[in-house]
Amino acid sequence: MGQFPLTLSRFIIRSQAERPSATGECSSLLNQIGLVGKIIAHDLRRAGLINILGTTGETNVQGETVKKLDEIANDTFLRAFQGGGLVCALGSEEMEQMVLLPENCPQGTYMLLFDPLDGSSNTDCNMPLGSIFSVLKHTQTDRPPTESDLLKKGIEQVAAGYLLFGSSTMLVYTTGHGVHGFTLDPGIGEYVLSHERIQIPQRGKVYAANEGNRHKWPSGTQQYIEFLKTPDSAAGRPYSGRYSGCLVADVHRILLGGGVYLYPGEVDKPEGKLRLLYEANPLGMVVEQAGGRASTGTMRILDIEPKKIHQRVPLIIGSQGDVETAEAFIQGRA
Ligand code: AHG
Ligand code: MN
Ligand code: MN
Ligand code: MN
Asked: What keywords would UniProt list here (predicted)?
């Protein structure tokens, strides 16, 4: 008889036994994120058959065309956390303002920021997609949270992670005690531990960047990418280019095998494209917890003092050694 599956719920219970100080609330939140993942995966697996591909015709606060699946994923997160008592406020890429869940205040002590569907350009061509989440604690429990309560540095996250809708559905998260990956077993409808205590290699052999933007990059960034492509077998170069259009999928590959993902600042758009609160911060926490590094090219992502909920930042993330080399080029020190 095979080993009994170590499901997400059992793993969380085991983790709590090892760390009595941990409260159960965050674990209930993680289980709810898992349920969201199952529902979104169920939609995605048959998206071409139930008229949920394509766009809604709307434009979101980012100035992006909203895909039907963006909206469906966002609604799934909203409905999962309304009334549950756990989360008192939500911030989403797809919603201009923070959403207060008054029925959950003040007992709800968590605030959830999320990118409901990451990699939206991939929806109609069956390429990988993800969801990203960041969990903050609402410390002023004598009053409902305001938007400024969401503007916490990444180092203040109590949990972070992502769902990856790839060849299998995975949930990868950290609560500050290592990074653990679970694979959804559709046969039993449970997430089963498949990658315990993920450690990212010190250096990798892969880089992920949209080189179609090369002409917009500052020279240091251009030089770094050329450096990665210059053969030097002793240094393991050239690196292979792997770019899927889904940040979660590209970072997941790098988390497991090493390397570097870049969505850098551009000459005319130094803040870059990716959003701090629900993309860079949560992935930054995951990658740092696995022994990697997440930087704007000049400073640590998790140290940034947020000013706005949809604030953008340049993101260089991955293996410690690779990100440090990228920083040296970007800062003109290479
Ligand atoms: P989202 O779909 O949540 O808006 O995020 C898209 C992000 C990220 O997932 C991806 O790596 C990057 O944008 C792709 O941008 P380009 O199409 O400009 O390369
Ligand atoms: Mn995204
Ligand atoms: Mn998105
Ligand atoms: Mn988007």
From this structure: Carbohydrate metabolism, Cytoplasm, Hydrolase, Magnesium, Metal-binding
